[in-house]
Design brief:
VC0802-like; Alpha-Beta Plaits; 5 helices; 6 strands; about 30% helix
Length: about 140
Amino acid sequence: MIIKQVSVFVENKPGKLAAVMNTLAQNDIDVSALSLADTADFGVLRLILDQPEKGRQVLQDSGVACKINHMVAVVMDDVPGGAAGAIQLLADHNISIEYMYACIGRVSGKALMVVRVQDYKRAEEILEANHAAVMSPDEIYRITT
């Protein structure tokens, strides 16, 4: 399924990452997944939040530069080779993965990863046609009803 990721640009200084995470916590926004990659002066914090639009807004209001990207949520068996099969499926259809990381989910025996690709709609169609992506955004965001 296609989900929203909040990409946050965080200055590489003590306390800056803590401030981002505290802003989310103070606004009752839950983190399902995160990835942090750094450069010399800034890091890119990629977040899957239970309320991505609200998360983006509260971070921007606090003076943090961020944006929303579309990602593909891939569900696979939590066994050796589970990720390899999903990645190979995308490769077989000439879809290049820009980056990916693991995600917390609520499906017993399954593993989740979020994947950034250029053509996320086509990737979703291929994965769904091959029974690889079966979770709704609410399940990825871990929203309870």
